[in-house]
Amino acid sequence: MSDFRVLGCDPGKLNFAWAVYGDAGLEDHGVIEGAPDIDALTAAAARFERIIRHTEPDACALERFHQRPGKGAVRNMEVVNLLIGECLIICRHYRIPWLLVTAAAHKAWTPRNFEVEVKEIVKKGEIGKKYDLSSYEEWRELPTDHEVDAANLAKYAHDHKLLELRRELQGDD
User: Fold this and answer.
1) pLDDT for residue 86
2) CATH number of the domain that 54 lies in?
3) According to the 3-state scheme, what is the secondary structure of the chain?
4) Where does the pLDDT of residue 170 fall: very low under 50, low under 70, confident under 90, or very high at 90 and above?
C-alpha cells in the first residue's frame, strides 16, 4: 500500500484546527481562523480549500459539532455546521472522500488503544475521569488542544475508520 494521508479537521467559530496523518505518523498541523458568524463562512471555506490544496489528502475526516449544555447559544451550532457543510462541498469538488465523526467516537477510541493519562474530575459532587489526549506520545508537542483533537481525529480515521475505503481506493485486497 502506498502512503495514505488523512486530513483531520476540528472546525469552530473562532479556530479551525487541522492535522494530516499518514502512514509514517503526524505530518503537518495548524490552526486557521474559523467562522465567527455567517458572514465569515465564505472566507473560512476559502481557507479550508487552501489547506486541501496544500496538503493534498487522500481522505478527510471532520469532527461533527454537537451543542453541549452550557457551552453557548444554538447559533454557534448553526454557523459551525454550515462551515462543515461548506468543507464537505469542497471535498466533493476535489473528489476527496470524507467522514463525519463525533468527538465521543475518536476521543474514546484513543484511550482504548493507546496509553494516555487519566485525570480525575469532580462534577456535581461525583468523581469521574477524563482522558488527556495531549498526553499521548505523538501529540505531546502539539501547541493547542484543538490541534490535538484534529490530529487524533486524523489518526482515528487513518487507522480505524477509513481502512476499508483505503483498500477500495488503492485496489488492494
Assistant:
1) 97
2) 3.30.420.10
3) CCCCCEEEEECCCCEEEEEEEECCEEEEEEEEECCCCHHHHHHHHHHHHHHHHHHCCCEEEEECCCCCCCCCCHHHHHHHHHHHHHHHHHHHHCCCCEEEECHHHHHHHHHHHCCCEEEEEEECCEEEEEEEHHHCHHHCCCCCHHHHHHHHHHHHHHHHHCHHHHHHHHCCC
4) low
